[in-house]
Amino acid sequence: MIRCAHAGVVYFRVVYELNKLSNYKSVQRLTHFYTTIPFLQTLFKNKKHLLNYHIRHFGLGTNVKNAYDTIYALSSGSGKCAVAVIRISGAQTRLAMEKMCGGLTKPRIANLRKLQDPNTKEDIDKALVIWFPGPHSFTGEDIAEFHVHGGPAVISSVLSALGTLSGFRPAKPGEFTKQAFLNGKLDLTEIEGLGDLIHAETEAQRKQALRQMDGVLNILYSSWRNRLTKCLANTTAFIDFSEEENIEDNILEHVFSEVCNIKDEVSAHLNDSRRGERLRDGLHVVILGEPNVGKSSLLNAISQRPAAIVSPIAGTTRDVVETALNIAGYPVLLSDTAGLRATVDVVEKEGIHRAVNRAKIADLKIIVLHPDIIKQTHFSDLTFADFVTSYMNHLLQDSGTMNSTQYSSPSNSHINEHYFSAEHNSPSTNQHIDMTNILLVFNKIDLVNENRSELFQHFKDNMCFLSCTTGEGFDSFMKVLVMKIQNLCGDPSVGSPSLTQVRHRHHLNKCVLHLTQFNTYSQEDIVLASEQLRLAANELGQVTGQISTEDVLNVIFRDFCIGK
Ligand SMILES: Nc1nc2c(ncn2[C@@H]2O[C@H](COP(=O)(O)OP(=O)(O)OP(=O)(O)O)[C@@H](O)[C@H]2O)c(=O)[nH]1
What we know:
alpha/beta; 6-stranded mixed sheet; disordered N terminus; GTPase activity
């Protein structure tokens, strides 16, 4: 009887722990309890029985049921190649080693072995075999890698042979990485970094992804979460014990100041002008201007190929012409657009409408102008912002798009209308365009006969003078363009790590909101306030996966390929 009661207590302790954790970590916890609590071993024949019993009575995520499967997949790319890597992970991995390559090899050392079909004993291939016993492996489980010759017949024979082994099944997309997460080998930000590294197309993207995979964001977010948890513990201690007077003096003052510090740090991290996200997703650069000024010629010169049609007929470009480029290691989506002018042509009108919409979402706008404008303008009377504002508003007015979009600059703020801005995808009022995201390019300088040095002395940082025909000034323009792109994306290998995903931004914004509410509530009710601390810490936990829901995990792992 006592024995039964004890078993019940122990088991309910297990259940209590399990409920505190996410489904995924529960499996590890459950098996840990089984090995460390001898009493559970007398109740259940093995871990699987305990797990099945628990699933029957309490229910766990479907993934838990697969925890004992051994998974396999082709981890290298498909198609003919010199070497293909087939990866196996799970409790039965050693069975594959024994049945297919004559037994286990020395851990983490490549061995040349004959691979055999486990049923017919027929040779399939000669392969390099590597054995990674858990828990010191990528997934935390036993892993084997077969580096086979990369012909389709070899690959399919090895995969079919593995499929005949009991408890083996093909891996789902991202399942190896998911297993690494479940076994606490990587947190969610590191996994997202790994995903970005696989998809990185440029040097800067690779650097940013590698840093994230190394855990910089995990360290940052976990440290905020730990500090908040400490604040929560102190607030709870104050609520529970302050009347007994055995609590540290000024404990709440310390909490208030620490919460303010954390809130400022998270806000500063959020307020990064989307550098990391821009670098991850690619920077939108749009070329705008009047017809026939050389916008398509500039796009072709930058992309070094005739991507857009160039002709002396004004209004040749009618739609948005996009080209994806790698500029100095940064990913850029460069768009040529229809020239902005008054027109009755319905198709051209639609093209102009698209040009204006593309400008709204662009991170950097290159406005191409004819050099005659310089002669007609008294630059000495104008700021850069005033010039851009009046020029663009004049173009928009002419092209009939003024109603939906209008520039305003800090110095002519009496113009209280809408504007183009990458930060705001919909028109907004009372705000000003960020002039650092605008580059003026005076093209066709080969047609200028006057003294150039006098003409070209204005707004040096944001103005370029070039000729797409002769190539004059093009190198200087590219230097300015690269500098602008670097400013917008930042250097991914130095400084504090950048926020890279909309998912992170969402949770961090909510974290700041809860910390603000903590400040509000703390004046009236410390119990309500402490709940806000718990919610703020939860938001941070969701970024790293310390608190996760199946939905979030499925979205993250869905983007991984099979075999990763
Ligand atoms: N002299 C000279 N002509 C140029 C230069 N750049 C472009 N052109 C010419 O200007 C004409 C228009 O060039 P595009 O690149 O098609 O101009 P666009 O701004 O795209 O024109 P739309 O499609 O009408 O909007 C073509 O005949 C080009 O060869 C330049 O630097 N110097």
